[in-house]
Amino acid sequence: MRITTLFTLLFWTVASLGQTPKNVSILDIDAIMQGERFVGFLPENPFWSEDGKFIYFSWNPDQDTLRSLYKVSAQGGAPEKVSAEAQLQLPARGEYSKDRSRKVYEKNGDLFLLNLTNNQTLQLTATQEDERRPQFSGDEQFIIYQRGLNLYAWERATGATQQLTPFQSGNFNGSAKKLAYEEWLEKDQLAYFEVLQKRKAETEAAKRQRNP
After folding, report:
1. What is the Cα–Cα distance from 31 to 63, expressed in whole angstroms?
2. Residue 159 main-chain phi, psi, to 5 deg
3. In the chain, what are the domain boundaries?
4. 3-class DSSP state of 46
5. pTM above 0.85, yes or no
6. Residues 165, 148 contacting (CB under 8 angstroms)
7. pLDDT in tens, 104-138
8. Extended strands (E) in 76-176
9. What is the pLDDT of residue 40?
10. Quick one: how many helices (H) and strands (E) in the chain?
């Protein structure tokens, strides 16, 4: 139902800006190749604000080089271009708690927890490394996320972080114990080389006997 309402609002909002003047241009290959710059840019990728009061969407009514982010009230009205500063404050896509009272998400490599009951945002990490794929634990007492090769857990009650996995990156230096099949292949290959060397020596000895 919300999706239907969203697209209906977008349609009537754009229509309310006024009728487009009749296109009297001659349609040719060059005009067709202009694509949206000839027929006009339509709103794309709509999504709701977290409080449900606005609809955001991508649009380019002025035919600029790039599309921009716009918003319109859920009650209707003229679209408004969203400033770069305001965009920085918008939460990214993420995961909601079961009761949808909280949302955890990653933005610019750090993690944030949004409280949807009071619209307050808590930054969970601020590191030079990237934290990714945040999600709630089964009991929702922890935020589980990935940093590098390892998983970490941030506890909501205390704010403490613990590392869950011990994986380390590095180059293989050959010191690790070889698997059984690897040892067998290595021994088999050495034995094959010894057979070849023996045959070569016998062949050379036979040549010397024939040609002293």
Report:
1. 15
2. 80, 5
3. 2-89, 94-163
4. strand
5. no
6. no
7. 999 999 999 999 999 899 999 999 999 999 999 99
8. 80-81, 94-96, 102-107, 110-115, 120-123, 131-136, 142-147, 150-155, 161-163
9. 61
10. 5, 12
